[in-house]
């Protein structure tokens, strides 16, 4: 009987056009924006406010009453008030008994209070059914209708029926409710809008650090050194040459750093002989941001492609080519085609093009819309097998770039090797260790460990 009536309730808003009155406490920015959206969606709205005077800002179809009067007109009451002002609700405890109170509040800092605002509200008005919702939607987005980026509304609460009622409202507003479980989830939901690209922090800080390091490294080798020893001013290298040196270096190092934690995890599991012991925290965090590391690497690789495309139109490059031609004309001597150089240059370009193509493919498959359409095995194939192939191609591209001068002592300036040589350290280390790990004597025990086998079982039968 109950089940049937709840079904009828859920269908009611769509079949008849009558919607239940919703009460909103607080006529601030969020209260007004939400009230406006609700009226548009066909809900009668009544505001509960400290002042019942009419105001131009309040949607004209809404009533403004005192808190007590407004609360009596609706089952669902949205508390659009800052947590610090919740105290007055205790005096309304009797009227609010049995009502659904929707907590939409946010805080200024992560974990600002020991308990979530929603749990605090539930403590203040124990007879009410508290549901957390709407806190991830901004008043501006509600008002302007630009909800594309924040269409998801996290909902949590201990009373299933109350939660369902709130989720129906969310749907009626054209938003997508995501049930996050009981009120215990409220703290996490409240922390969500305060996070600033949490998974991107490490990749971006690391990239900035590496960019700064390689910028000064190239500055010393490519600008200061020729100025000191040959009195040549190559300061214009700062605009294109140095960025086009830093971008591929960063792309390669960051791509290698995507695969390094997997290799370290394998070594740790082999050493411990079990997969049931937690990795160190830093390794866990590193593994979680591999996708972001890869996307930053792809951004640097794309910049490298763009910088490379403009090389032929650079004034310095055109001057160098024409002066070589002029010197051949003056000496009346045509340089013969150097086959080795031609091979090196073509191989270098081919490896770069193939590496970049696979790099883009990896980036595309990491997009949720694409990864949702492949199964786990396909995803692993692309991200792992094609990923390693990309790393091999890009590493080879960098090695061939060095050509005949690769590892040659003459390319050292002030004992500093070329920057691209430094960029090869991490990828080569990853590839060598990965190569060692695929030997059957290591691969077999590792596969068994990953299937649950333990060298020294913790719980013997
Ligand atoms: P606001 O503009 O400062 O409005 C808060 C309202 O609370 C006031 O207009 C007032 O309404 C009422 N109020 C203030 N002091 C009070 C007191 N001592 N006792 C009782 N009522 C009091 O804030 P808001 O931006 O609308 O935010 C309201 C809540 O929504 C906050 O918890 C916030 O975290 C949350 N939120 C806001 C946004 C947003 O984009 N703004 C987004 C998500 C969540 P009356 O004058 O009508 O009494």
From TrEMBL:
It is a multi-pass membrane protein. One of its GO terms (molecular function) is ferric-chelate reductase (NADPH) activity. Residues 249-394 form the Ferric oxidoreductase domain. Its cofactor is FAD; heme b. It comes from the Eukaryota. Coiled coil: none annotated. SUPFAM superfamilies: NAD(P)-binding Rossmann-fold domains (SSF51735). It catalyses: 2 Fe(2+) + NADP(+) + H(+) = 2 Fe(3+) + NADPH; 2 Cu(+) + NADP(+) + H(+) = 2 Cu(2+) + NADPH. Residues 21-107 form the Pyrroline-5-carboxylate reductase catalytic N-terminal domain. It holds the Pfam family Ferric_reduct. One of its GO terms (biological process) is iron ion transport. One of its GO terms (cellular component) is plasma membrane. The chain crosses the membrane at residues 204-229, 249-271, 292-313, 347-365, 386-407, 419-442. It is found in: Endosome membrane. Keywords: Copper, Endosome, FAD, Flavoprotein, Ion transport, Iron, Iron transport, Membrane, Metal-binding, Oxidoreductase, Transmembrane, Transmembrane helix, Transport. Belongs to the STEAP family. This is Metalloreductase STEAP4.
